[in-house]
Amino acid sequence: MKVNEFVVLDKFIISRYTMAVLPHHFHGDSYAKVIEEDGECIVKMRPIDIIKRSCDYYGASFRGRKEGTRAVIGITHKAPIAIEPLNEIYVFPTISPSDSRCVWLSHIHVYKYEPTKNDQTIVYFTNEKSILLDVSYHSFVNQLYRTAQLRTKLSERMEARERKLQYVFRMNRSKDWQQQ
């Protein structure tokens, strides 16, 4: 089905190509507008439900991802979510996720951002698209930096674990070689 030249989907899973999930109201219903690198669609789900469903799809609950964020960087309110860290799918809310006006942005797609005179923020994506957000520049930058901190910490942990595994593997090979 199409509405105003947008494809309308019943369900959606966020991928590495998803740039933003915005609230979209149509005939009194709360839907989501999803902006991808190569197009846009309307989804018959609220943005928060897309985030939760995507977490489930990649093997973790939204609640678990929120608790993980708290454990890693100590953030509990407006927490960035590592939907799928191995594919660098990190999203962050512009305001409280319980607010129906909340927009979710993918960290890897934010190219630059700037304040407006009306205490809003323009966000430019890596594919040169842009959106105007009804959020202050300071608040946006804070959310962006929190997400960068989460990405960095999780990446460091994954790399440290990998180094440790490599070390154990080399030690075991060395012992096997010495026993021959």
Automatic annotation (TrEMBL):
Q: Which GO terms describe its biological process?
A: establishment of competence for transformation
Q: Which InterPro entries match?
A: ComK (IPR010461)
Pfam families reported in the protein's UniProt record: ComK
Q: What is this protein called?
A: Competence transcription factor
Q: Which organism is it from?
A: Saccharococcus caldoxylosilyticus
